[in-house]
Specification:
The protein has about 325 residues and is an alpha/beta fold. Helix content is about 40%, strand content about 25%. It folds into two domains: about 120 residues, no CATH class; about 180 residues, Vaccinia Virus protein VP39 (Rossmann fold, 3-Layer(aba) Sandwich). It contains ten helices and 14 strands. Strand 13 and strand 14 form a beta hairpin. Helix 2 runs antiparallel to helix 9. It starts with a helix and ends in a 10-residue tail after the last strand. About 40% of the residues are buried.
Length: about 325
Amino acid sequence: MTTTLTRLADEVRSGLAAQPRVLSPRWLYDANGATLFDEITRLPEYYPYAAERAILEAHSGEIVATTMVPTIVELGSGRSEKTRLLLDAAIADGRLDRFVPFDVSNESLEEAADRLRQAYPGLRIDPVAGDFTDVLGPLRSPGRKMVVFLGGTIGNLYPAERAEFLSNVGNLLRPGDWFLLGTDLVKSADRLIAAYDDSMGVTAEFVRNSLRVLNREMDADFDPYAFDYVPLWDGHEHRMDLRLRARDAQHIHVTGAALDLDLAAGEEIRVEISTKFTHGQVRAELAAAGLSAYKTWTDPAGDFALTLAASSSQDETPRTS
């Protein structure tokens, strides 16, 4: 077993043996998961995609003019659809010569890179496959860069994981580098639950897909349809909590993780969280990681935020929000 698979097997074994039982959201994003998530972004209930796109449509030119970098690195890039607004603005500005998309699904990454090469024949596209929390490789690329982390994906990390991730970013940014972070903002519980429990059932299929990936990659025998999808709002932690609940008692083999799993009827597996932020919380978590928020933009409805930050040691510009 490769080092990566060994690490993933250890993670699955510890997560599913824990109480409450948890899976990493990394298991959501194979090629099928990427396609399902693409469908989610177009659902009427799911506001984050359109809200973040509206910000980029309105402010990509300003972001590019402020950062003036020759390289853009996108963490958790997916299909890089919204990022094209930044790429278009940066190419028009005349400085951009390299784009580094970084994503966990190698198959989806290569497909997206091929489309980008066709769309931007003069731009160097250097895809990197890996977990976006492992930022060392792409952030060590030479030259000045802007690191982009869109979609509110930072909210999928637990507080300690967020702190470690942001600290790694802060430690690796050099003078002249920038960090552009997308965060979903706190809003009513009814609206949030609706966004993660769409009437078409696409999100439920997306979350169940994690079990299909485990079956394939870890030689498990989950029946995805033996589980109900349960989206919950945790008002204390300000996050959506996406779970799968066993309909009946089940005995499951996860051969690749050397795990036999007994689930009681009604027992749940947490597959993903999605934390929602306030502006002050974003600035505070960036500051704790040695990053200084330079400017924040929101969509007209105030649903989503994009924050541009730099290393605190290099930022001498008054900050606005």
